[in-house]
Write a structure and sequence with these properties.
By secondary structure, the protein is α/β, with parallel strands linked by helices. The chain is built from 18 helices and 31 strands. Helix content is 30%, strand content 21%. The longest helix has 17 residues.
Amino acid sequence: MARSEDVVEMVTTEFGWFEEEEEGYAEKYRGAVDSLKIENGVLRRYLTYFAALTRPDNIVLIRGDELEGIISSLVSEGKLIRLNGKTYPNSYLYRSDPSDVARSEKNTYICTPEREDAGPTNNWMNPADALARFRDLARGAYSGKTMYVVPYILGPEESPFAETGVEITDNPYVVANMMMITRSGKRALDRIGESTRFVLGVHVTGSLNPEERYIMHLPEDDMILSVNTAYGGNALLSKKCHALRIASVHAKRDGWMAEHMMAIEVVRPDGRAFGITGAFPSASGKTNLSMIMPPSDMEGWKAYLVSDDIAWMHSVNGSLYAINPEYGFFGVAPGTNERTNPNALDAIRHDTIFTNVALTDSGEPWWEGLGPRPPHLIDWQGRDCNGCEQAAHPNSRFTTPILNYRQLSAKYSDPRGLKVDAMLFGGRRSTLVPLVREARNWAQGVLFGAMLRAETTAAITGKVGVVRQDPMAMIAFCGYNMADYFSHWLRMGSMVKDRPRIYYVNWFRKDSKGEFIWPGFGENMRVIEWITGRVSGEITKGIETPIGILPEVDDIRAPGVSRERLEEILSVDRDGWLRELDEVEAFFSQFGDRFPVELRKEIERMREGLENW
C-alpha cells in the first residue's frame, strides 16, 4: 500500500504519539536518525518517532555485514552457546524464555476500522486502540538498549513480485535471525529508495509478560506492532506477519496469492519438470515433502526445493508462477532425522542457530526423534536432564540460510518463479480422508482447501492433538475476512487460464490397530508420480466419487504396500463424509452471507452425491 504523508501525520499526531515529553525526545533523536543517511523521508519520520517513544541509547542501521559481530556479542553475553565446531561449525544454541516458545494466536490481532473486515476467525482490534496500547507498553522500553533498524526484501532481488519491509527491534537475537531468513541490509534499503511502499514492523521485547503480549497488524497502514515477545513468528515480523497476514491483503487487492505453501520442482526420468505447491497445517508433512528424497527404486526422479513454507503466486502469461519470499529456514527440529528428512539434516549441519533444543556433553544439539538418546543431556532450559521426559522443546527450531540446502531449485532465484502445475492440500487425519484425490474443477479444489482440517501441534500455544478447521492452512495467517479470502481464490481461478490441478493428500490414515497404512516420507513421491501422470494426461483413468477423483489401485506404484492396504487407504466412507460435511458447514456458517455462493453449491453437490453413493 502506498503510504502517504497524511498517514505518517496521522500516526504521529492523532493518537497522541508526540505528547510534550516525546517532543523533547524527538529533537534528541532526530540528529541520530539523520546520521544514518536514509533517503526515505517517511522512514526517517517513523524512526524519529519510535526512537522518541522507546528511547534507546543508540540506533544501528543494519547494512548487511553485521551478522558475525552480533553473534559474537551474543556469545560473549552468554545468550548464545557456541556448538561443537567440528560437527556443527559456525552454529549456536539459543534458549528463549519458557513463557515465550511458540506463536501466540490468542495475542495476534488484525486491526481494521470495521470488525467485519477482519472476520470471525481473527482477533480484531480497532487501529486507534492498537496504536494507543502499543504506545503505553513501548514507552521507554528501549532504555539502555540499542534500536536496530533492519531493512529487508521478500523475494528474489530482481523480481517484480518482491516486497520490502523494515523491522525495528531492540533484540539482537531477532536481528541475527532476520539477517538469516531475509535479504537484508543496504540492498533492501536501496530497493526501498524513496518509495512509501514498504511494510513497517516495530518489535519490543518488553517484559515478555504473556498477559500483555500483543502482535498487531494494521493492514491499511502496512504496519505491524509486536510487544512482550521475542520468539519466532511473534518477533520475526517478516515471516508470518508480513509474508502472509499483510501480504494476503496486498494479494487480494492486486490480484495475486500469498499462501502458506511449500513449493517444489519435480523432475521425472524423462526430463519433464512439474511445479507443485502445497498447503499443510503444522505437523502434516509440509517440510518433509518440500525436502523430499525419492526412494531408491525411483531411479531418475528428482525433487528440488523452491520454498518450504510460503509461496507468493502471480499470473504470468496465463499461468500461475510461485516465488519464495524468504531467504532461510525457520524449521521445527523434533522429528527431523536421517529417515524423515535427510536433506534438512544436511542443511543444518553448519551456520545454524538452534533454539530450545537440548545439548549433549559433546556440545551438539539434540532433540526427540534425532536418534538414540545420549546418556546425559542438558535440556532446552539449561537444566540437567538425567531421565527427564522431554529434553528439547516440542517446538524447538533451527534457523538456517536457504543456500545451505543442496537440492535448491534454480527457480528459487528466478524473478518470475516456478510455474505451478499442481496444488496440494493435506492435513494430518488418522481416519476418513483417502491417500489422494483430485478435484474435478477449480471450485471443487477451492472447497478441498476450505475444508482442510488437522490436529493441532506444539507450534502454537494451546492444547495439542485437537482437530481444528484450518482452511488452506491459513486460519492463523489470513489478514482479512476468510469468506472474502475464499472468494479471492475463486476469482483467481477465472484470472488464470492455465489453472493448476488441485489435490488433497493424507499420509496419516491409520488402520483398526492404530498403525499407519502408508509409509510416508520419501514414499510420498509415489503419490507425486500419480499426480504428474494426471497433469501430463498420461493417466486418464480414475475413480469418480462425490469427494473427487481417486486413483485406481494399480496406478499407485507402491511395492512396499499390499493391494489390500492400498484399497483401504483409497476407500470412501459415505456416512463419515456426510458427518464431515455437517461439521465443516457448521464452521462455514459463521461467515453468513459473505461465504461464497459457488462454494455452497459445491457442498450441495458433494452432499447429494454422497447421499446417492
